[in-house]
Amino acid sequence: MIPRKKTRQVRVGSVPIGGLAPISIQSMTSTYTRDVDATVAQIRCLAEAGCDLVRVAVPEKSDTAALPGILDQSPVPIIADVHYHFERALEAVEAGVHKIRLNPGNIRDRKQVDRVIAACRERGVPIRVGVNEGSVVERADHDRRAAQKAGIQTDPRSELIRLMVQTVEDYMRIFDENNFHDVVLAAKSIDAGYVIDAYRALSERFDLPLHLGVTHAGPPETGRIRSIAALGSLLAMGIGDTIRISYAADPIHEVEDAKELLCSLGLRNRLEPELIACPTCGRIEIDLIKLVAEVRQKLATIKTPVKVAVMGCVVNGPGEAEGADVAVFAGKGRGIIYVQGKQTRTVSEAEMLDALYDETLAFSKRVESGEVVLTGRDVTITPPDPLPRKDGSIPLNVQP
Ligand code: SF4
After folding, report:
1. Is 341 left (phi over 0), alpha (psi -120 to 50) or beta?
2. Which residues are registered as beta bridge partners of 82?
3. Mean pLDDT, residues 91-112
4. What is the set of domains in the chain, with CATH numbers?
5. What is the distance between the alpha carbons of residues 39 and 46, in angstroms, rounded to a whole number?
6. In a mutational test of the pocket of ligand 1, which residue from 311, 328, 387 has the highest number of ligand atoms less than 8 Å from its CB?
7. Are strands 342-348 and 10-12 parallel, antiparallel or unpaired?
8. What is the Cβ-side half-sphere exposure of residue 395, based on CA atoms within 13 angstroms?
9. Hey, which of 278, 291, 332, 381 would you mutate to test ligand 1's pocket, going by the most ligand atoms within 8 Å of its Cβ?
10. Average pLDDT, the chain
11. Residue 387 has what pLDDT?
């Protein structure tokens, strides 16, 4: 991991972005913003799942008119996503939103941008300049468009990245001339590799905070991987101040994925149990995949970052589960449970789920009361003796 680049900090309501502030998680509502109740309900769900900032679309005047009602009830700062109509930006700022997103590809008129900047300055509202791959190619000037298209055909990667970065640079000149620096930058593509290169270029050129994201990433199965590939790579290079994972599904899953990404990279502290599980192999003797799914569901009620391991055997399981606060090692029809490296009990396969949950709950209560502490990677697990089968033979290819 490369140490994070310290960028200029901007404040979005109560949430700082950049300047080494914790990397914030963003998402976007999928409701019509003018439907205040539905929008507030979704914002609350996203916030509950760990989302720090929520963006809402404001294509119509009725959407910006709904913003005061939403802002009154939102537990997190709200960002208005503005395209084409600069008036929506002015209305949103007037309504009290905490940040505006402008797309340089569709709000280009200098006077309009100046007016939005002036309104944001007056209210202390930062602006995200968010370029998308799909809106950087010239539309009005036919000669320029033809030249850009020809460039893209010859070398799509270089030309599109060049266009995205140049669009940001050109737009930023307006902000510089207005002496307005409360800006967050983004340059999104559907291609994870392009995203990595575009953000690396932005990070070299600007000290402004960066909002990382892959645009139109597709269905969850592929969109999630594209997003994690791009955002994970950039974060590991020390680039990125706020992230949005996006794909075609309920946005709550974006937030869960973003949280897991940041926790996996050690960029956010876990607040809930961490579940580790073996991938299973030819030594497995229980239905571990089903058990893991059930354990995951049950652990959702526990709010302590206990590390729980569900391992399929006693051969490699203990070594692979080193560091787990609570662990179960399964053999044929039985499981041995460990708490912080000590064997506590052996249970049948039918009892395994409840026993593991009970031990985890009891352990988390002891952590909360201060009786024990989480020791991170320091838990040592000594392999249990192989579990005897009913017929007395030793399972799992382990010799006594
Ligand atoms: S813990 Fe055991 S069953 Fe699971 S993958 Fe490792 S060796 Fe295979």
Report:
1. left
2. 102
3. 95
4. 10-264 (3.20.20.20), 274-378 (3.30.413.10)
5. 11
6. 311
7. unpaired
8. 23
9. 278
10. 91
11. 56
